[in-house]
Give the backbone structure.
Amino acid sequence: MSCILGLVCALPVHPEVCDRGCHPTTTQQRHLQFSHVLELQNKSIAPWTLKPSHFDKHIPEAYCHECPDPCLKSEAIQVQVYFTQPKRNLTTGSVTYCLCTYKLAVGCTCVRRSAAEMSSRSCTFRSQESS
C-alpha cells in the first residue's frame, strides 16, 4: 500500500483548475472497478438504479426514481470524487497531472417538497410536537 501511495504522491500535479471535459482517457486510469458495498437501491423508500456515469463508464452512478409518497421528492446523495488527468506539454513532451473533481450520485433519499410544491399536491405534514 505504501508503494502505491508513494508513487501517486510522486506524480507532478498542477494546482490549477482543469479544463472543461476533464475525464480519464486511458485504460490505465480506469483500472479500478467501483461498486456499492450494500445493495440498498432495492430496499430504499427512495429507489434508484445504477447506470454508468457520464464521468466514467466503469463507475456506476445512482439515477433517482420518484418517491412513493407524492408529498416527497427524490434527491441524489452525492460525493465529490477526485482524479488526475494527464496533460502533455506539446513543447517539451513532458507529462504533468491536473487534479480534477466530479460530483458522483451514490444513492437517493426522499425529502420534503417546498411549500409551493406541497400546496399544488395538497400535502400536509403533522408537526413533530403534535405527535
